[in-house]
């Protein structure tokens, strides 16, 4: 390996004049993109890391000063931060779990042959295609006490007594649960599509062999579908976990409570209170959590590839 | 083993890289707008010879012909487009080109702060809500106009509109429109319940509410979603019950005796009497207005501008049934309401400050304030206009005197630099009391302690 690498590098130095010219042209053409990426992507990341070690309150006229790890310490001692982490974890586990179960069920259904299959495959995308805020506003209307859809349906089904008129969004647990339901409705199609693509790539011969061995529906699901679909499931779950962990916009429709998610809290500290130092530290802490998730994802993928 | 070594090596390299980056990177710099102003204000009219400095703030030079070549950009809330049309009169009258960047209220704060953060001089003038005055002045986003606008001009404004654009006696903006919350009631629903007049005190309000709540309809609805709209109602209520948000030494106090009484009263209405539509905990002002127009609630507290819609049959089921007046008081307090007046400020980063000042002079004069009421129904900031025949004539609903009366009882929210954070804490705790998760006293004590901690952490 080492020899090849060295040999490759060595031969790269002995390029023909034409190859040198091509390489230089390629670099020249890449430079604008590299510059834009550095300015818009790399530079803000580094800048936020630097800011996280400073007291940098933009809007109160106070001086900027180096404070070391004080911002990180303050955040770890902040009750609000841990409440927001707990709420984010609850939202992530609840939504991704439900979306995986429902998405798997829908994918199995849409993988069967039946009349109108293409139509159903098409319309299932609608909730996912909807703007997150529009989806939030729609569900906010459903959750209105009195004449909101949820209360009316529960009254009609007799599950709520006629004189009962509950207010659905009165504390952060309720807000998280009802916001999760809105998110599940919107994001299940995404999970369905990813799993459906995985299902279509499965070898039908496996099912035929299983049927000949006398396997029933559940045995086929348990011993063939789920193990074969595992790579697609891992990708789908990890992508959704990353998305759910960063939840922000849908929550703003239901409440102005920033402790409902760590992204909401970070946004508030950065762009409403303008404590840029503390907000940067908070953003870095959540980034580290996400990085841990990514490492787990890579390891799981690797393990899966090794098994194959 | 090999993988483990690889990961460790990668981690060490990444850490070293980060340490080098952080160590070698320069400290964050204060934005350009935080630098001291290039030119100082002059309201006295002292002039010196030579060409006029177009970036100065000199009231005496606003008629300079050199201004005719200037172009200024104003960021303002205008969702209908009618304000932009009206503002073009400024260009017609002065020759200064005015570009209007219209936006909605919810995007306003973000647009202003994004412009300030990026040191952009895109906007010369911005609409400023009363609660941002301290933040914008302390953060050096806007020019201090205290010594720029002459005293005789300032004395012509209504007291509530002028105080709402001030922080620590400094003028952050020119008053733009007057606003407080008002008391609206459905005359038919009150009459059906046996009342000919609205309540004058909160005690009367409570008694009347019990009779008015029947048949799926509630006596009142409120904007008590955990948001700024809840703080607005709470501020008015606190002052009604004799409370205040400031101690004698001027420091912030959210758990005064009056504040606890006010919150106890609000909690009693919604949790014990159940005379308030429970959806109020999920409503902001627009939702309350919709419920009032649908005839689902008999009384509400809301901003001006309800009348065009409340008497429009396509939008309302209570045409000609609504009236407006003073919010109730309690004890020796006749009435109290939160102020929502706004101003227009000059950005520190503006490169056309003299032309911007010329706009402010025009905007705060009769030339704009009168048509802004007669054509758009927005209440003027000039005291004299409330007796103006044209304004009186345009007041088709005959409500201007009633609206004006409430302005006398306007109370500002504590608009210090940290207000946005304090307001979030306060609305969260007040909401907990209203939702029955905490007692009113406990909620306000917790709010006080959290606000204290926030102030300490910001230092």
Automatic annotation (TrEMBL), chain A:
Keywords: Cell membrane, Membrane, Transmembrane, Transmembrane helix, Transport. One of its GO terms (cellular component) is plasma membrane. It is a multi-pass membrane protein. One of its GO terms (biological process) is transmembrane transport. Its main location: membrane. It is found in: Cell membrane. SUPFAM superfamilies: MetI-like (SSF161098). Pfam families: BPD_transp_1. InterPro entries: ABC_transporter_permease, MetI-like, MetI-like_sf. It comes from the Bacteria. The keyword Disulfide bond does not apply. CDD domains: TM_PBP2. Residues 85-297 form the ABC transmembrane type-1 domain. The chain crosses the membrane at residues 24-46, 88-110, 122-142, 229-248, 273-298. Belongs to the binding-protein-dependent transport system permease family. This is Sugar ABC transporter permease. It comes from Cohnella pontilimi.
